[in-house]
Specification:
- This protein is α/β, with parallel strands linked by helices.
- 34% of the residues lie in helices and 18% in strands.
- The protein has 6 helices and 8 strands; from the N terminus they run E-E-E-H-E-H-E-H-E-H-E-H-H-E.
- The chain has helices at residues 52-64, 75-83, 102-112, 127-135, 148-163, 170-174, and strands spanning 24-26, 32-34, 44-48, 68-72, 90-94, 117-122, 140-143, 182-183.
- A 6-stranded parallel sheet has the order 4-3-5-6-7-8, with helices on both faces.
- Helix 2 (75-83) runs parallel beside helix 3.
- It starts with 23 loop residues before the first strand and ends with a strand.
């Protein structure tokens, strides 16, 4: 068994602390035990979407992949967070939001934080909007409903561009010419 030889102690689930960065493993019994080490987050990701349901869904997917997640409900809020020191490596940006739409937010975001990688998300599969987003500097465009696999691949690709990785992962296998990932659900 994988956990054999590790020091173990038992706690009731009600005694588990609600701490970030602590991973809990399930033993053969329904009891739980903490891992012996801290599992750090990979990178910071900012989710900009006006739908609370989608915010929660994307937060769940991203936290499962160990990303630190910041949420903004619209373009203005996202830009304010950037001005106040929020420094995400990747921004998931909804295309259609009330007030400032995703394209306008992207234009300003590029001036404020040019190093951030941007993935546009939209419920609209419009080739012209995709071209506009890419021409404004978006690295990827995902069509909602966003699937975990495509989201993870797009973020990994963006982070790979940051580090210039060449270790054979998704980011390095795709090459610079295939910068945008577009997912169209069936």
């Amino acid at each position: 068994m994988l956990w054999e030889g590790l020091p173990a102690f038992r706690v009731r689930p009600s005694e588990l602390p609600a701490r970030r960065g602590v991973c809990w493993r399930i033993n053969c019994d329904p009891m739980m035990m903490p891992t012996t080490g801290f599992i750090p987050t990979k990178a910071s990701v900012s989710v900009v979407d006006d739908s609370p349901e989608l915010q929660n869904y994307l937060r769940l997917l991203l936290e499962l992949d160990r990303y630190q997640v910041d949420i903004a409900g619209n373009g203005e809020e996202a830009l304010l967070r950037l001005r106040n020191g929020c420094n995400p490596r990747v921004v998931l940006l909804d295309m259609q939001m009330p007030g400032m739409d995703g394209l306008e937010t992207l234009r300003i975001l590029r001036r404020l934080h040019p190093a951030a990688r941007v993935i546009m998300c939209s419920g609209v599969d419009d080739p012209e909007k995709i071209r506009q987003a890419i021409s404004l500097g978006a690295q990827a465009y995902l069509v909602k409903p966003v699937q975990h696999l495509y989201l993870s691949a797009a973020i990994e690709r963006c982070l790979g561009q940051d580090s210039g990785e060449s270790d054979g992962s998704i980011g390095s296998r795709m090459g610079a010419s295939s910068l945008q990932l577009v997912h169209r659900p069936n």
